[in-house]
Specification:
The complex is a heterodimer of chains A (334) and B (276). Chain A has a six-stranded mixed beta sheet, with helices on both faces. Chain A has a five-stranded antiparallel beta sheet with strand order 13-17-14-15-16, with no helix packed on it. Chain A has two domains: 227 residues, P-loop containing nucleotide triphosphate hydrolases (Rossmann fold), CATH 3.40.50.300; 87 residues, Nucleic acid-binding proteins (OB fold (Dihydrolipoamide Acetyltransferase, E2P), Beta Barrel), CATH 2.40.50.140. Helices cover 27% and strands 31% of the residues of chain A. Chain A is an alpha+beta fold and 334 residues long. Chain B is mainly alpha-helical. The radius of gyration of chain B is 23 Å and the shape is globular. Classes of the chains: A alpha+beta (334), B mainly alpha (276). Chains A and B meet through strand 6, helix 2 and helix 4 of A and helix 8 and helix 9 of B.
Chain lengths: 334, 276
């Protein structure tokens, strides 16, 4: 079991408000990702759940029990840190089993659980090494092993992949997703990388300046962002925003359309513009287009489209995929 | 170390280092040499450097007149006892200051250090009276407590500096592993900070070993360490340079050996905070 509930959680450091009143329900067994730009308070929120920081106000409830003033050690959660935070003076075997040893579990049980975890994580050959003798990916797997052997109520991940190179990050991302599904343990995962958020999460919590902007499944956030912030943050390359006369024509202060929902062609209907740059990625082509009355539009074209800088194009946004926002940045109904 | 130093500069540095080293070492050398002279030759002018009649007589007299080993034992008990007691207080204190600081932590540290700026003689009379009334004069317990308190600010400062270098995340990881504060300090922090803890202990043992003000003023015989042993040759029947030197040589010998064996840790201790 591992349901987590936040009620009016606030955190201030001195006069700085870091978290301003967060209410959130995390269901048992779900994979929830906190995402937002750096400084939005996502790591602080995770540390509040962990008990590594004390809440200024509000309650944190795990499995129906208020743990707001309970020490981190007693909350029954595990955490994987960005810096791995392995015990440098212990071997991999001892790192993984340390929590169990300190809980005075029988030796056979510790050995068995360490063996199981290291097998799952491909660490069996490295059990007698110290963290300093491991690669970044291996260290992160040890950190995950340490988290899983304790059979916690929930896993907390604090940007666990940001110190890894791109290829390894993709691989570890898949491993974490698979592991969480197998163990069916609640996971709360913090990242600034929206691709990680989209691929891992059952539900994404988008944070900005200490406030929850929107909570929803990845496709909900992609398909119907609640406001300009979420619209701009989720999706890559980011959504194009157009305000002024083009938006006013659609009864909105701002309209947004994703690069993949614009059809670019040499001739046809739509906005007229000039290609500034074209990025050919093989499968996709990203076109950066100068369009009058906008700050420039990005459009995705599938495959190779013989367009190059300086060419004239026509851009036709898919009318069903245009997002409208009011002057406060809130999404307007379709 | 990979940096190449130009040859002339290397020579100058080497010569300078040896000169400074010799100047610093000279008093100890002179004390040792004097301890092997007769009382007459000990203050002859011009002083004799090596060409004198070597004698072991002073050592024999010193050994006969006062119980060297009783004093050594007192020195060991006082220095190690006071430092270990200080560690028991300082490790949790430094842990709190390094890993759970408040806005007053910096001020507390400075305030603690400021107590070292007060000349001890300023509080000699009150301390003496308190110790007399408590029956702590000439007792090991009383001196251990006093030396512990005298060194505590330095011990806390040194440990604080070492603990600051320990990544906080590892301690947080142990908390997430379900480990309470006491065991976090014992099984996670202490092993990681072991070099720092070792040099703190060593340096402060030496400071306590050589502490002469309190040990001379508050002891007479039962708890008297080696400092009192040396001092006993400088007063009653006038100054006996050779015997004083023999006593001093005997007093510094154990700590010199300890220092020699633990050079590496000591150097780290003396330069603490200087390099990350």
């Amino acid at each position: 079991m591992g349901s987590i509930r936040l009620e009016g959680v606030r955190k201030t450091f001195g006069n700085t408000v870091v978290i301003q009143g967060v209410d959130l329900d995390i269901e048992d067994g779900s994979f929830v990702v906190f995402v937002g730009p750096s400084g939005c308070g996502k790591s602080t929120l995770l540390r509040l759940i962990a008990g590594l920081e004390d809440v200024t106000a509000g309650r944190i409830i795990i499995d129906g029990k208020d743990v707001s003033s309970l020490a981190a050690a007693k909350r029954g959660l595990s955490m994987v840190f960005q810096s791995y935070a392995l015990y440098p003076h212990m071997t991999v075997r001892k790192n993984i089993g340390f929590g169990l040893k300190m809980a005075r579990r029988p030796r056979e049980e510790i050995e068995r659980k360490v063996a199981v975890a290291s097998k799952i994580l491909n660490l069996t050959d490295y059990l007698d090494r110290k963290p300093g003798e491991l690669s970044g990916g291996q260290r992160q797997r040890v950190a995950i092993g340490r988290a899983i052997v304790r059979e916690p109520k929930a896993f907390l991940f604090d940007e666990p992949l940001s110190n890894l190179d791109a290829a390894l990050r993709v691989q570890m991302r898949l491993e974490i997703a698979r592991l969480q599904k197998t163990l069916a343990t609640t996971a709360v995962y913090v990242t600034h990388d929206q691709v990680e958020a989209m691929t891992l999460a059952d539900r994404i919590v988008v944070l900005s300046a200490g406030r929850v902007e929107q909570v929803g499944s990845p496709l909900e956030l992609y398909g119907s962002p609640a406001n300009l912030f979420v619209a701009g943050f989720i999706g890559s390359p980011r959504m194009n925003f157009v305000s002024g006369e083009l938006a006013a024509r659609m009864d909105a202060a701002t309209i947004g359309v994703r690069p993949e929902h614009i059809v670019a062609s040499r001739d046809g209907a739509g906005w007229r513009g000039t290609v500034v740059a074209a990025e050919h990625l093989g499968s996709d082509t990203f076109l950066y287009i100068d369009v009058p009355q906008t700050d420039g539009i990005t459009a995705r074209a599938v495959g190779e489209l013989g367009l190059k800088a300086g060419d004239e194009v026509r851009l036709a946004p898919d009318p069903a995929r245009i997002h409208r926002f009011d002057a406060q940045g809130r999404a307007l109904p379709r | 170390m990979a940096r190449r130093v130009p040859r002339p500069r290397a020579i100058v540095t080497t010569v300078l280092a040896w000169t400074v080293g010799f100047v610093i070492f000279f008093p100890i050398l002179w004390t040792v040499l004097t301890s092997f002279k007769t009382e007459l030759e000990a203050f002859s002018t011009p002083p004799k450097f090596l060409l004198f009649k070597w004698t072991m007589e002073n050592y024999a007299v010193v050994q006969e007149r006062s119980d060297y080993f009783a004093h050594v034992w007192n020195s060991v008990v006082l220095s190690f006892g006071s430092v270990l007691l200080a560690m028991l207080i300082a490790v949790p204190a430094a842990w709190a200051m390094a890993f759970a600081p408040t806005e007053r932590t910096r001020g507390t540290l400075l305030w603690m250090l400021s107590t070292k700026m007060m000349p001890p003689v300023g509080v000699l009379v009150p301390i003496y009276l308190i110790y007399r009334d408590l029956g702590l004069l000439d007792s090991r317990v009383g001196l251990i407590a006093l030396l512990c308190l005298a060194n505590l600010p330095i011990v806390v400062w040194m440990l604080f500096t070492y603990f600051k270098e320990i990544p906080k995340g590892v301690l947080e990881a142990s908390r997430m592993d379900g480990i309470g504060t006491a065991r976090e300090i014992m099984f996670v922090l202490a092993p990681m900070a072991l070099p720092g803890i070792a040099s703190t202990i060593l340096l402060n043992v030496i400071l306590a070993w050589n502490e002469a003000f309190w040990t001379l003023n508050l002891t007479t015989s039962k708890a008297a360490p080696l400092t009192a042993f040396i001092a006993s040759y400088s007063s009653p029947e006038g100054l006996f340079w050779a015997k004083l030197s023999a006593a001093s040589t005997l007093a510094i010998a154990p700590i010199l050996v300890l220092g020699w064996l633990t050079q590496r840790q000591l150097v780290r201790g003396l330069t603490f905070g200087a390099v990350k």
